[in-house]
Amino acid sequence: MIVHVVDGTYELFRHFYGQRRFNKGKDKPFGAVAGVLHTILEMIEGGATYLGVATDHVIESFRNDLWPEYKTGAGIEPALFRQFQPLEDALEAMGVVVWPMVELEADDALASAARIAAEDERVEQVCVWANDKDLAQCVVGQRVVQVDRRAKEIRDADGVRRKFGVEPSRIPDLLALAGDAQDGYPGIAGIGRMTAGRLINRYGPIEAFPENVLGRERELALLFKRLATLRTDAPLFDDIESLRWRGAAPGLAAWGDRLADTRLVERAAAARSGSA
To answer: Is the pTM of this model over 0.90?
Structure first.
């Protein structure tokens, strides 16, 4: 059995701005939602049977209390933000397990789901469908891999080492030193990704660095590492069978009408017949 865990927030952004290239600024109220639903159906049609989608129900998390400059919902276009809740509701109507995150982030849910699934002996592989570089820390050999849609690449542990120059487990150290502009923390002044990689490969995790390497910046680096380290303790599910897709709920028909998408229900029904 292969388990697929998907970054729903990224998918919503991807479809929203992808459609912007063609709609001349005339956004459909739920256009990105429809795009995500069809993406998930495409995965199911391709054989994905066990899957879950993580979403940022709110953008802020406990990390904002640790670092005030950490990413927030500021600047998100209203037309996009208004589709956050509908995405969760529509996915549930389609019979897909959804993990809406409030105190944690969608990335924490993905990391937690990957950890829980990988501990199940019935699971052959876990595929984490997410582009964010911090998700590379979840990769374990070929058992837990990262699927990067943008790069069209599936990364196992060797792939992570080739791309980032460090072991998957050292990704939080790398981001702490080099920074992550997308998440809103700068890293340590004067240390870029290549230098960070060399330091990590020489000394190990930041906690093992000699005192003189970072000096007074050591505590700041440890704070950034805490921001970069994904939580794996979210209690998302107990039984892997709860992730099995068994077809859409009756409520999907109403979503088909709401989205003005006549293909949605038909495609979901066909996918269910094909997976039966």
So the answer is: yes
- In percent, how much of the chain has pLDDT > 70? 98
Mean per-residue pLDDT, 106-132:
96
Q: Sort 233 into a burial class: Cβ within 10 Å, 0-12 / 13-18 / 19+.
A: exposed
Dihedral over Cα of 64, 67, 69, 71: its sign: negative
Let me know if 207 is exposed, middle or buried by CB neighbors in 10 A (0-12, 13-18, 19+).
Answer: exposed
d(CA 259, CA 262): 8
Among 129-143, 199-213, 254-268, the least confident range: 254-268
Is 212 buried (19+), middle (13-18) or exposed (0-12) by CB count in 10 A? exposed
Q: Using the 8-state DSSP alphabet, how is residue 91 labeled?
A: H
Tokens 């950034």, located at residue: 224
Mean pLDDT of the chain: 93
**pLDDT score recorded for residue 274:** 66
The first and second tokens of residue 127, run together, are: 């595929």
Specify whether the CB–CB gap between 154 and 147 falls below 8 A: yes
Sequence letter at residue 165? G
- With beta carbons less than 8 A apart as the criterion, state whether 15 and 36 touch: yes
Domains of the chain: 2-160+232-267 (3.40.50.1010), 164-228 (1.10.150.20)
Which amino acid, one-letter code, is at 276?
A: A
pLDDT band at 23 (very low <50, low <70, confident <90, very high): confident
pLDDT at 151 (0 to 100): 83
